[in-house]
Recover the amino acids of this structure.
């Protein structure tokens, strides 16, 4: 298979990158390891309003459905059930469909693998019924399956509250939030209000989850002493961290930025990594809000096309600047600061970023 | 936390085992991996990467940012050997040697030498 | 440099804590109350010894006196395990398949040569191989087989060497790179990132990094770096009984696959090119592996002396400086540790090791002592 | 448990399929993953860990943790969270290491 641009990951960033590259005239291949495109947006039933120009505010999965419709109407070649597993010595990305493994010959790559949820360990966390908040959300919103009847949510961040609310709406009883810090970290007042009937145990940690064959109860250390409740579902929401394997495979340098989720590939204002043929988009870059995620896809696509000469540098610079301006309006301030920091640190290196040995 | 708490789901390695490795001088995830098998299972440290890094940070009193992730290796996800073998037709530039072939080559060389 | 009275002078400083260095440290410490320092630029097992198939391979090591040395090492491992603990040493027997009937004559010649030193090799027909190891593909023509071959767990071996050495008083300094070695009034000053150490003797056991260590003493070490890439399956039920040339199953159930050779310096990346070639080789040899999940590929930088044979012994012209560098460190560590100990403590060895001396390269162009 | 009418999405899946877990026939919705189809039928225990023989089930649902391995139509260690359920599919829990030996004796 051959293309101008190969995009790895068909979440919102990858699809946005694919559509942008295609619009500017590139031949694009988009692969995703899942059986359908859409990434983690496929199960977001909450409303998104801070979207870039051209996007209608809607619930997440409607936003992605619209994008997927455009995708299939475009000339982008979409391969689901195709996973990037490695790289050849000439730098080409290797992909498997489960039956065979082969290179995709592209002149530039955009890596948009997304982020994964951080684990939170405690005795019994390996029991069936203990899962990430994201897994529970997939079950209810993508699979129409209830993961349990009585749950606790570990963590009080925005995502924890979002999933707790959606579980609650599907009929799951949320018994408590368990938060090790001294206060709730969710910044969304409306969400907090909607779940104000759920007790929040702060300065609390799970002592143990127990059960025969699956989780049946949980014991929690709280400032008021030990609390024990019967639950059949424990959700862990401990934040997200960028998925790194595709970048490491492509020899992209990593750097540490706490507010971008920990270790993250180093990239510049073109969203180019230290491997000049690899660009980054979306959650893997530590960008967390949907609007900015969509814009990073566009920026990465423009830079990739500049790299391979489909766009000239002036055009590319104009298109990029337009999108960065819009992105900054939509971006969360802590993330924005950390991202600027990262880009600044890339600038202090040789420019353009040189491939690390 | 209870020292017997499992950190690596795949290989079922607990906090105590990781701390013991650190006590024996291990400083990176990869050091711990080789001593304990932590992170060597099918998920290849995708899930335990940061919990282990946190344990190293706490135990050695080192900032988290100074503890690199483990070496993330190919394949990015488990792949059937058959699927890996299929797909590339042309193996003529193979760098795979054979044990047998090698010994015979060495043997031939030996006859030319007077040792 | 002025010597400080307070500065300790080690009897021996060993540079490199891989399987060879740690074996020497252990064997020395076991013989005598020696002040020993074991230094490594990184942590044990981060280099070659931690990225190997870990065969203890005897039968096709030629010339036959090299096979003989390997055979003695295989014998010593069984005994060593009783002393330092279980490193999963198994003398499984080794099968080296060949695919063309025309290779049978070569196989018979190998069997004859090795037989002279007591390494019994059977040259098997295809059916005999399949009877021994039903998982092997009927596509092979035959194989050489010897009971001497086996494998072990290199992680356990090196860890146990070091643990036993520490118990015997060996001091270790890890994550400490050696930056220079000087000999001042008969004493070696080993400069490291963490300061200077002094020793009456110094042993270079740096594996692929030996060349750099040699330079510090002004000695050319004729070795090449060769990358080997290995695939590893997830644990499978035991189904391979023997160590097969290219494929072996560990105690834990994983199958280690690979026999690639590339000259790429210290580049330890893996590449899909070689991974796919390796996969094809494995399926041609053991077809049932096709369904096994590969969870990891890794590569190690092997060290290959220019004539393929081990180099160990005193470095000619520098009294008190020794070297031990070889391709098959896992196979040879037990015998090399034993012989180097004899050499340092007794001044003579129970086996003649002169043919392993660095001296044999004295006509090499780059050589300078 | 199956959600028949989702509060936001309504009735998402319509077509029903039959698959087997431990040879027992179960109903699922076409479009669901095997992991979800099993959970809809109250089955959360998908396998047994190697060392301590503890139960394992769906954890990340994104194909990364490998905790949801099952045997599907004779292929061992398949990710149930990444595989769509299909009519007549035969699923077994993953309680032991994969066994290439069975194939050798069978052939």
């Amino acid at each position: 298979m051959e293309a101008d641009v190969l995009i790895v990951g068909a979440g919102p960033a990858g699809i946005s990158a694919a559509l942008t590259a295609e619009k500017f005239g590139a031949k694009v291949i988009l692969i995703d390891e899942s059986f359908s495109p859409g990434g983690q947006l496929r199960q977001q039933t909450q409303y998104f309003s801070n979207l870039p120009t051209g996007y209608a505010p809607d619930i997440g999965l409607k936003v992605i459905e619209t994008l997927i419709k455009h995708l299939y109407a475009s000339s982008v070649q979409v391969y689901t059930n195709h996973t990037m597993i490695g790289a050849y010595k000439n730098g080409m990305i290797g992909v498997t469909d489960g039956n065979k493994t082969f290179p995709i010959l592209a002149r530039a790559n955009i890596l948009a693998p997304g982020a994964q949820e951080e684990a939170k360990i405690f005795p019994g966390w390996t029991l069936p019924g203990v899962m990430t908040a994201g897994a529970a959300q997939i079950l209810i919103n993508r699979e129409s399956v209830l993961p349990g009847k009585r749950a606790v949510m570990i963590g009080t961040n925005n995502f924890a509250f979002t999933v707790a609310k959606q579980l609650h709406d599907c009929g799951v009883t949320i018994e408590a939030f368990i938060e090790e810090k001294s206060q709730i970290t969710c910044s969304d007042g409306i969400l907090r209000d909607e779940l104000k009937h759920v007790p929040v145990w702060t300065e609390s940690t799970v002592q143990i989850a127990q059960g025969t064959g699956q989780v049946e109860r949980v014991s929690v250390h709280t400032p008021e002493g030990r609390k024990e409740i019967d639950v059949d579902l424990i959700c862990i929401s401990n934040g997200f961290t960028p998925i790194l394997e595709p970048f490491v495979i492509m020899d992209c340098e990593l750097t540490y930025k706490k507010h971008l989720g920990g270790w993250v590939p180093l990239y510049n204002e073109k969203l180019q990594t230290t491997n000049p043929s690899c660009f980054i988009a979306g959650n893997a870059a530590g960008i967390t809000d949907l609007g900015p995620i969509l814009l990073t896809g566009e920026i990465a696509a423009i830079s990739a096309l500049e790299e391979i000469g489909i766009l000239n540098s002036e055009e590319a610079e104009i298109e990029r600047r337009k999108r960065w301006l819009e992105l900054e309006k939509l971006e969360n301030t802590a993330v924005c600061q950390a991202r600027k920091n990262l880009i600044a640190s890339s600038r202090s290196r040789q420019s353009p970023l040189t491939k690390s040995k | 936390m209870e020292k017997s708490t499992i950190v690596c789901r795949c290989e079922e390695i607990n906090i105590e085992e990781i701390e013991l490795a650190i006590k024996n001088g291990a400083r990176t995830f990869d050091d711990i991996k080789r001593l304990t098998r932590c992170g060597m299972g099918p998920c290849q440290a995708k899930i335990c990467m940061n919990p282990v890094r946190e344990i190293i940070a706490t135990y050695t009193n080192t900032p988290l940012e100074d503890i690199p992730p483990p070496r993330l290796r190919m394949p990015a996800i488990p792949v059937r050997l058959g699927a890996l073998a299929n797909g590339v037709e042309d193996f003529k530039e193979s760098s795979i040697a054979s044990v047998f072939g090698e010994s015979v080559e060495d043997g031939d060389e030996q006859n030319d030498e007077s040792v | 440099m002025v010597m400080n009275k307070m500065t300790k002078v080690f009897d021996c400083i060993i540079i490199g804590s891989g399987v060879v260095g740690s074996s020497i440290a252990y064997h020395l410490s076991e013989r005598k109350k020696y002040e020993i320092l074991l230094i490594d630029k990184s942590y044990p097992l981060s280099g070659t010894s931690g990225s190997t198939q870990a065969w203890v391979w005897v039968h096709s090591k030629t010339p036959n006196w090299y096979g003989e040395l390997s055979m003695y090492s295989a014998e010593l491992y069984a005994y060593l395990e009783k002393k330092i603990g279980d490193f999963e040493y198994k003398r499984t027997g080794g099968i080296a398949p060949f695919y063309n009937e025309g290779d049978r004559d070569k196989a018979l010649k190998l069997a004859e040569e090795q037989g002279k030193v007591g390494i019994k090799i059977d040259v098997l027909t295809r059916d005999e191989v399949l009877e021994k190891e039903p998982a092997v593909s009927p596509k092979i023509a035959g194989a050489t087989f010897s009971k001497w071959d086996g494998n072990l767990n290199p992680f356990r071996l090196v860890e146990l060497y070091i643990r036993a050495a520490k118990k015997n008083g060996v001091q270790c300094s890890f994550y400490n790179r050696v930056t220079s070695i000087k000999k001042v009034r008969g004493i070696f000053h080993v400069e490291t990132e963490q300061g200077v150490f002094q020793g009456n003797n110094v042993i270079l056991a740096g594996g692929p990094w030996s060349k750099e260590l040699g330079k510090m003493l002004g000695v050319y070490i004729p070795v090449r770096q060769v990358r080997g890439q290995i695939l590893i399956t997830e644990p499978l039920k035991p189904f391979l009984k023997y160590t097969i040339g290219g494929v072996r199953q560990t105690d834990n159930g994983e199958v280690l696959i690979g026999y690639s050779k590339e000259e790429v310096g210290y580049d330890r990346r893996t590449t899909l090119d070689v991974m796919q070639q390796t996969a094809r080789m494995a399926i041609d040899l053991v077809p049932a592996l096709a369904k096994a999940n590969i969870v990891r590929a890794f590569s190690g930088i092997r060290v290959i002396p220019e004539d393929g044979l081990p180099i160990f012994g005193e470095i000619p012209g520098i009294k008190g400086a020794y070297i031990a560098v070889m391709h098959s460190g896992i196979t040879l560590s037990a015998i090399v540790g034993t012989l180097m100990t004899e050499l340092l403590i007794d001044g003579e060895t129970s086996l003649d090791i002169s043919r392993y001396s660095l001296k044999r390269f004295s006509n090499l162009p780059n050589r300078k002592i | 448990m199956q959600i028949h009418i989702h509060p936001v999405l309504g009735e998402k899946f319509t077509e029903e399929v039959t698959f087997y877990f431990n040879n027992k026939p179960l109903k699922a919705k076409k479009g669901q993953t095997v992991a979800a189809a099993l959970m809809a039928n109250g089955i959360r225990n998908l396998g047994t860990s190697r060392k301590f023989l503890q139960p394992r089930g769906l954890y990340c649902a994104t194909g990364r943790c490998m905790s949801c391995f099952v045997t599907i139509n004779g292929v061992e260690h398949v990710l149930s969270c990444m595989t769509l359920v299909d009519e007549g599919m035969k699923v077994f829990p993953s309680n032991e290491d994969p066994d290439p030996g069975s194939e050798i004796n069978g052939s």
Remarks:
- Chain B touches chain A at residues 1-2, 4-7, 9, 46-48, 50-51, 64-65, 68-69, 71-72, 74-77, 79-80, 82-88 (CB under 8 Å).
